[in-house]
TrEMBL record:
Domain Response regulatory intervals: 1-114
Domain HTH luxR-type: 140-205
Keyword Phosphoprotein: yes
Protein name per UniProt: Response regulator transcription factor
Length: 207
């Protein structure tokens, strides 16, 4: 539904100047569509099913570095969490805007990225500058990097005290899927229960 809304908002080519050449619901299809159509700009959902926007960026790295026809990426997300922003910018995205952006501002951001500019939502610009101001890149949390984007979402909600049913409703997934994600998170982080998980997340300021 959200994808349909974005397409309707920016895809009126005569008004916006933007031509939508493809769309995809998950990482594998996104990589296939991007590789086949070679768009000038990809509007990338940070939490795209199948590995997230970072995985799309990793698999499309050769297209980004093409000197003659580079594919540029603009990340779009409901999240303004540090690990999400830094993750996609490290991956090669040229900008990061949140889903509260207006249609006209989104179109403007797409054209700015197409021209080679870096574009960020106002709240994120200062944060990104601070994060990359020094020669020392933000530290990589190897434990956190083991988790998929969806597992991180579930982790954050568990740590905030949400019940499985509430998480399922918020993420539009089944309770059984939530349970599977929690089990995977506990296994990957070598934790025993949600109380340990909450302490782990709080210590890393993920809550």
């Amino acid at each position: 539904m959200f994808r349909t809304g974005v397409r309707a908002e920016i895809g009126r080519t005569e008004e916006t100047g933007v031509e939508v050449v493809g769309e995809a619901p998950d990482v594998d299809q996104a990589v296939s569509v991007i590789t086949a159509s070679r768009p000038e700009v990809v509007l990338l959902d940070v939490h795209l099913p199948g590995g997230g926007g970072v995985e799309v960026l990793r698999r499309c790295a050769p297209l980004m570095s093409d000197a003659e026809q580079p594919v540029r990426f603009l990340a779009l997300s409901v999240s303004d969490a540090a690990e999400d922003v830094i993750g996609v910018i490290r991956g090669g995205a040229r900008g990061y805007v949140t889903k509260t952006i207006t249609g006209s501002d989104l179109v403007n951001s797409i054209f700015r990225v197409q021209e080679g500019d870096a574009v960020f939502s106002p709240r994120l610009a200062g944060f990104v500058l601070d994060a990359f101001a020094s020669t020392d890149a933000p530290p990589v949390d190897e434990d956190l990097d083991r988790l998929t984007q969806r597992e991180r979402e579930v982790l954050r909600l568990i740590a905030r005290g949400y019940a499985y049913k509430e998480i399922a409703k918020q993420l539009f997934i089944s309770v059984k899927t939530v349970e599977s994600h929690v089990s995977a998170v506990l296994r990957k982080l070598q934790l025993s229960n949600r109380h340990e998980l909450t302490r782990w997340a709080t210590a890393r300021r993920l809550v």
